[in-house]
Amino acid sequence: MRSFRVLLLGLPLLALSATHAREAAACGGCFVSQTENTQVSSHRMVLSVSPEETTLWDQIAYAGNPASFGWVLPIKGQVDIGLSSDAMFAALDASTQVQIASPTINCTPPPSCGNDNFAGSPDGDGAAGTSGEPPVEVLAHEVVGPYETVQLKSDDPQALSNWLADNGYTIPDEVAPIIAAYVAEQFNFLALKLVPGQGVDAMRPVRVTSAGSSPTLPLRMVAAGTGAVTPITLWVMGEGLYEPTNFASFLIGAEALTWNWDTQSSNFSDLRTQRFADAGGAAWHLEAGEPFSSYNVEGQLEYLVDYDPGNSGYGGDKQTPREEMSEDMMAMFGQLDRANLWVSRLYGELSRSALSTDLQMGAVSAQTPVNRFLQVTKQTGTAPACPTFPPCDDGLDGDGFGNGSGDGFDTELGGGGGCAMSEGAAGTASGLAAVGILAAAATIAVRRRRRNR
Questions:
Q1: How far apart are CA 30 and CA 345, in angstroms?
Q2: Distance between CA atoms of residues 284 and 306, nearest Å
């Protein structure tokens, strides 16, 4: 019989963009600043919590033999199972990331040379069970996308382990006591594996919806197969700010940060690593907590399913990408009051011992937003020099701009109110900036016309 290795809560092997810093200069202000990317590779999950139901999303990634993949999750009662998309996780990640900006260096603005209209800074945002006493009851058995799923109930952990083993799920010795504990707590179990013939490239995030409000993350099942430290990013969608109630948590504010101009980064990562170490790997960083618009996710996904459905991650044999995306978004936001919608983003680097306890989340008594836009004020290293500007041209023609052409522009580099990054580069820098602005405006116009159609 083919053996399926149990992948508990689907620990992923994510391919994310490398951390890097970008230098930006805007003119007309005139200022110099830098930003830092805080994205890290981690296991990613989402909880949507309402009084009526709770939904857990888990982004599963697996790099081994498809025939060896298995996934087991403790559940309460029976659940509804659906498929999600990697694009949903990407949209949620992008709209909630911590943004760290360097101190701003205020520079002398460029000379206007009589042309103030061209000086300014750009705006930006942001099966049947086996017999035995007691038996294992199969509550539901269905194929969902690339997965064969089964929901199980038993009062006997040994009978449950035997059923899983008989049906191709190999249970590691260290997991047997965890299963026994969940059985004693009257949990049922959801198990899934790839349908024969499906490859790992067909794997998609899984969505599991249960009745009632249960803001709990079953960390005990994450422990199997993990290393010394397990990084996890968790988003909680609810009608207010959520925080851990049985784990320590901490914030990192801008006042604690120092920007190093030489490395183009802050000490954010070092501070967080130290806080995790001080807590013995049993704490969560509350990265962000703020009122949230569902359009931040829905808008991006709607554009993908309409204009680039192949990269939306949605759509199967039974549903169109639009239908499947709408079902996913209904599970995330449909039971919540969107006027009072909040997102809480947490990150943990959990030790194996910390995974012995399930994470319990609760609403924060003081609903104060957790700022994720951190403007650093303390600094070290050598700061970038302010840009320099050539003097204005003394010779003026009839149009008042000194080029003799009457067209309103100075043909000498740097002489017409532009902002040079360095001497000799003003024409190139300003020309590229103009092209970039026109290209961005054209792109926005095209997208709006497409949406209107």
A1: 34
A2: 37
* Pairing mode of beta strands 69-75, 4-6: parallel
Helix or strand (DSSP H, E) at 210: strand 206-211
What's the CA gap between 190 and 213, in Å, rounded? 19
Q: Give the span between the Cα atoms of 106 and 103, in whole angstroms.
A: 10
Asked if 21 and 36 touch (Cβ cutoff 8 Å), the reply is yes
Tally Cβ neighbours within 10 Å of residue 400.
Answer: 11
Respond yes or no on whether the N-terminal peptide bond of residue 134 is cis (omega within 30° of 0).
yes
Contact between 435 and 442 (Cβ < 8 Å): no
**Alpha carbons 6 and 168: distance in angstroms, whole number:** 9
For the stretch 168-212, pLDDT in tens is 887 778 888 888 999 999 999 999 999 988 888 889 999 999 999
Distance CA 433, CA 273 (A): 39
Helix 86-94 to helix 295-307 angle (10° resolution) is: 140
Residue by residue, DSSP assigns 232-283 as: EEEEEEESS-EEESSSEEE---GGG-EEETTTTEESHHHHHHHHHHHTTT-E
> CA torsion 74→346→264→105, rounded to 10°?
160
Contact between 40 and 16 under an 8 Å Cβ cutoff? The reply is yes
Q: Is the pTM of this model over 0.85?
A: no
Q: Which helix (H) or strand (E) holds 47?
A: strand 43-49
